[in-house]
Amino acid sequence: MRFTFLVSLLCFHHLIAQTDDSSRTLSITAADPRRSFDANAKVWFSANQAIAYGLDILSMRISRSNSLPFRASQLSAAVWTNAMLRYYSHEMAHEYLYRKSNALFNSGINIHRWTSSYVPGFYYPSWYKDPVVSNNYSDDQLLSAIAAGLNQDEWNARTLWREAIDLDQPYYESISFLMTKLRDVLYILSSGSNEKPFASGQNIESLTQTVYATSPQLFDDINLYRLALLNRGIELSNRSFLRQALFADLLTWKTWTSVYSIFYFLHYGTHPAKQDTKWQAPLVSFYLTHRGTFYNLEIPFKLPSDHLLLINIGSMKDGNSPFSRHVRFGAEYSPLRLHQRLTVMPFVFMNLNESDLGVLAGAQLNAQIIKHMQLTLLCEYHQHDMLENTIKGEEQGFHFEWGIRHKLTGK
To answer: How far is CA 46 from CA 2, 28, 116, 153, in A?
Structure first.
């Protein structure tokens, strides 16, 4: 699936005339996007990049591209395609747990149920699956499955932020970022319930069945997560939930520059020029875990010779404690040039919590294969790491992964 997707995008690139001045990046990893946060995020990112590239080419070739109606139609197309890709990426994430346990799924198109979720017939929740025996999973696993969709949205926003950390900010990427970064806020606002109809102490399987049968208005990601925490003695009202999500989203500078970029494009038909500055905008991410919410602050520092130092500071908060239950800190450094065509990005993170010490350490190697194409190799070790093991659900130990980065360019 992932290789077919990459080949299709490369073919799309070569069908476009090479005289157009547009540039986007595709990044695909050799992992199943139905089982991995990272692979899912990269497919989401690359699909959006290919679409953005096509819209750029279209605008260059239509003489009326400078008109306001045309720019508005471009924005509308960008919102629709982003909503579609975000939807499928989000829903796919909910099934990581079951797919990693080899539950049987049939991803075929349902020609008998032509209900459309953006792509007619490809209605994601009707991807047929055998009944999943949830009793086979722990409460922690089931709660993580509930939170996986919103965590995937947050990880997608982070992926885009990392890819564009030192680049201009076109309108399409701005829409992509806002629609994923603000997804939690919109979801909380649409859920909007503080009902507490269930006694604490229920297991997650019983809780979800009871909600589905007796209070279907609460059967959504936000309320299921809130009630699951409540059953563990962690109070998280929707109002508190909303404040926490807004705290992360509004403190992220890219949220504001994305809004500005969209209005700038609508008015001028281009994106604002990037300022020549050493200051880089930080990112505040907001994740949901089985023990409470987790904030992660990433601060980039532009060093001489175009090196980048990325500092990470993360902390957990449940309904009854300050930001101190679980602390994560570390840094990444890039690029260290080993050869004219070979660079490496080392990283190390430490985790301190009530009972465990954790670590994530490793490096990513980037090798230039041909012009505009790189081979990437990731080697890392993680144990009790908040992001890799708790939020993303990766198994502890060594992890190896390879992929390809390709720059779509008309130059």
So the answer is: 11, 7, 23, 15
Q: Are 325 and 316 in contact (CB under 8 A)?
A: yes
Assess whether the previous peptide bond of 131 is cis (omega < 30° from 0): no
Measured between alpha carbons, how far is 299 from 55 in angstroms, rounded to an integer? 32
| CB-based contact 226:292 (threshold 8 Å) | no
Both tokens of residue 230? Answer: 């409540």
Record the tokens describing residue 392, joined without a space.
Answer: 């993303």
Q: Are 383 and 411 in contact (CB under 8 A)?
A: no
- Residues in contact with 15: Cβ distance below 8 Å, sequence separation at least 6, in sequence order: none
In angstroms, the CA 270 to CA 167 distance is 14
Q: Which amino acid does the sequence have at 196?
A: K
Alpha carbons within 13 angstroms on the beta-carbon side of residue 191 total 26
Write out the two tokens for 320: 């009854």
Residue 103 CB burial class (10 angstroms; 0-12, 13-18, ≥19): middle
pLDDT tens digit at each of 411 positions of the chain: 444 444 444 444 444 334 344 578 888 888 888 889 999 999 999 999 999 888 888 877 775 557 888 888 889 999 999 999 999 899 889 989 888 887 777 666 666 655 656 776 665 555 556 667 777 888 899 999 999 999 999 999 999 998 876 666 788 999 999 999 999 999 999 987 888 877 677 788 888 888 888 888 889 999 999 999 888 888 888 888 999 999 999 999 999 999 999 999 888 877 776 665 666 789 999 999 988 899 999 999 888 777 888 999 999 887 656 666 789 999 999 888 888 889 999 999 999 987 779 999 999 999 988 888 889 999 999 999 999 999 998 999 999 999 988 887 755
Please count the CA atoms within 13 angstroms of the CA of 37 that sit on its side-chain side.
Answer: 26
- Tokens 């949830």 correspond to 134
Beta bridge partners of 29: 403
Structure tokens at 6: 């990459």
Peptide bond into 335 cis (omega under 30): yes
